[in-house]
C-alpha cells in the first residue's frame, strides 16, 4: 500500500496572483525604449504555402517595410504603384475628415455616439485594399476605413449614425454599427468577438459551396480574451478555413490595457502557434506592411493554404469612443512617444520621398475630403438628426425580424402602441 500523503507543512510559500498594471498612468513620463520594433525590411517573407510551424519569428517579431528614411525596404514591400499609394492616401484623408466631423457632430448633439479610429487607419484601409471587393468582411466597430475604401456612400454612413429616416438599418443598430450586403460588409455587432466565429463559419460555407471568396474579420486585442475568439481559431485551424483573423492590438480596451488580454506574457500573433494557424505580427502603423500581410494571408487562403492570424501592433491615439475620457487612466505622452509614429504621416512622407507627392497636393486633398464630408453631412441632415423626430416609424421595430410577425411580437406591439397612446394622447402612436 502506498504511503499516505504527508500533511501540508507551514514552510510552503504562500500562493499569490499577478494582477496586471499598465506601466504608465496620467502624468507619468513615458519611455517606450524597451519595445523591440526590429529593423524595417529585416523580416523574411515565407512562401504563402509554408507550414505554420516555420513561422515562429513572424509571430514574435514585427513585419516592417517603411523605414525612418521614408523608403520601403525588404521582401514584404508590396511594390504598389504611385496611383495605388495615392488612392490609399486619399482613403486615409477621407477617414480622418469623416472622424473629425462625426466626432464634432456628437458633441453638437446630432448623434448619441461615435468612435474614431485615429492612428489605426492603416489596419483597415490598407488591409481592405489588399482584399478583393467581394471578399466578405466581418469587422469590429473601428473599421470605418473598410467602408470608405470600398466606396460606401458617406451619406449612408451618416444616415446610420444619425439613426434618421434615411438610415437603411431603420435605427435598429447603435450609431456606427453599419451593415452593407452590397459591399460584402457584415453587420457590426456590439457584442465583442462574435464576428470571429461568424467569419470562420462564412469562410467554411464558402468552401463547402465551392465558391472562391474568402472571409476576413477584425477584432480588438482586448476582445481576444473572449471565448468566441478561441472557438474561431479552433474551427479555422481544424477545417483549414479560407479566413483571415485580424487582431488590432491598439494597446487599450477602453480603460483596460492589453496586459489583461495576455500581452505581458506573449504576443497576440503567437496565439496562432498554439492553434496551428499561420501567424504574422505587423507594424500596424506601416500601411505597406499592413497591405503586404493582408495580401499574403489572402493569397494563402485563396490557394487553400489555410487561415492566418495577423496581429497589428498599433496605438489607439484617441479615446475609446465619444463616451470615454482617456486622460483619466493613461498618460497623454503615450501617443506622442509611440515608437511607430502615425500611419498617415508615414505614408505621406513615403510618397513625397518617391517624388510622387507634395505638401500642396496633400493640403488640397485634405480640404477636398473635408468639403465632401461636409456636403454629405448636410445631405444626411435633411433626413434628420438625433431627437428631431425624423426617424423611421416606431412600428418598424417589430418588422423584418421574422417573415411574418409572430403572435408574441404582435402582443408586444399592441402593448407598446397602447402605452404610447396613454403617454402622448392625441398623437399618432405609431409614428
Ligand atoms: C461581450 C462584451 N463585453 C464587453 C463589452 C463592452 N466593451 C465594448 S468595447 C470594449 C473594449 C474592447 O477593446 P478591444 O477589443 O481592445 O477593441 P478596441 O476598442 O481597442 O478597438 C468593451 C469592454 C461589449 N461590448 N461586449
Ligand atoms: Mg484595443
What is this structure, in a nutshell?
The chain is of the alpha/beta class and 431 residues long. It has helices at residues 56-60, 82-107, 121-130, 144-149, 154-162, 195-208, 227-239, 271-275, 287-302, 333-337, 343-353, 359-381, 407-423; strands at 136-138, 215-220, 243-249, 252-253, 256-257, 278-283, 308-313.
Per-chain topology:
Elements (H helix, E strand, L loop, with lengths): L55 H5 L21 H26 L13 H10 L5 E3 L5 H6 L4 H9 L32 H14 L6 E6 L6 H13 L3 E7 L2 E2 L2 E2 L13 H5 L2 E6 L3 H16 L5 E6 L19 H5 L5 H11 L5 H23 L25 H17 L8
Parallel strand pairs: 1-2, 2-3, 3-7, 6-7
Antiparallel strand pairs: 4-5
Helix pairs in contact: 2-3, 2-11, 2-12, 3-9, 5-12, 6-7
This protein binds thiamine diphosphate and magnesium ion.
Magnesium ion (MG) binds next to strand 4.
Task: Output the keywords.
431 residues, alpha/beta, Rossmann fold, five-stranded parallel beta sheet, 13 helices, 37% helix, globular, binds thiamine diphosphate, binds magnesium ion, Oxoisoval_DH_suAlpha_N_dom, THDP-binding
Write a structural description.
About 35% of the residues lie in helices and about 5% in strands. The termini are far apart. The chain has two domains: about 325 residues, Thiamin diphosphate (ThDP)-binding fold, Pyr/PP domains (Rossmann fold, 3-Layer(aba) Sandwich), CATH 3.40.50.970; about 30 residues, no CATH class. It is built from 13 helices and seven strands. The mean pLDDT is about 95. By secondary structure, it is α/β, with parallel strands linked by helices. The site of magnesium ion has 6 residues, from β4.
